[in-house]
Amino acid sequence: MMNLNSFEVTIKCGYCKSKNVDVKIIDTNSTAIAEVYCNNCKNKEKLKMETEIAMKQVYWDIIEQSKQGTNFDSEKQFHNLFELLKDRDEKFIRDFNDEWSGISHSYIVSDRDEYDKLHVSNGGIVDGNDTFYMDFGAWLVSQGEKLFKRYLKYGYQEVINYIKMNDIKEVDYTYECMDYVFQDLAKYKGHEYLTGV
Ligand SMILES: [Zn+2]
């Protein structure tokens, strides 16, 4: 359906080659070390990864952590994201922000027709322009890797199913705006913006 992009990271079990693995990054100092657990054959191994790929996993992990205990309350998740990032150095936050923008770009721009099916004018669930392209787009990123990959693979219906299945309130999936966290972080670090100057 859609072009899979650079955010698609495929890690396989070194023993049975299954893709059904849990990946945990345990060290990113020089080369990144990941611990890979295979859900298929239960093989556990350590793997050296390219740092860039490993960092994508780290960002997704942070997003996943920010969802914990929120029961899809976006206000709470926003607060969690801020707390998880505020003590990171500025480069880390900037890189995370870049990655975040890239993911949001993949949602919205990689196949515009597919994304637009989520708009009420096409029978979807979100109205407005800014709300649809900015707030909802940022919220989608904040829902994590699983939904992102399923969207790229199966399309807009995955998002509708996800919202229904989890009984997520409109006020939460149109939350304004999850990526303002980067502005708040910039202020917290004493700048107007994270990029520039
Ligand atoms: Zn395996």
Low-confidence stretches: 1-8
Please give the radius of gyration in angstroms: 17 Å
Distance between the termini: 40 Å
3D shape: globular
What small-molecule ligands were found?
zinc ion
* β-strand amount: 5-15%
Number of strands: 3
Order of helices and strands: EEEHHHHHHHHH
Task: Give the assembly state of these chains.
Answer: single chain
Mean pLDDT: 89
State the helix count.
Answer: 9
Strand line-up in the sheet with most strands: 1-2-3
Q: Structural class from helices and strands?
A: mainly alpha
Question: In words, what does this structure look like?
Answer:
α1 (51-67) packs across α2. It contains nine helices and three strands. Helices cover 49% and strands 10% of the residues. By secondary structure, it is mainly α. It has helices at residues 51-67, 74-85, 90-108, 112-116, 130-142, 145-154, 157-165, 170-173, 181-188; strands at residues 21-27, 32-38, 44-49. A three-stranded antiparallel beta sheet has the order 1-2-3, covered by helices on one side. It is globular, with a radius of gyration of 17 Å. The protein has a domain at 52-188. Mean pLDDT is 89; it is low at 1-8. The structure holds zinc ion. Residues 13, 15-16, 18, 38, 40-41, 43 line the site of zinc ion.
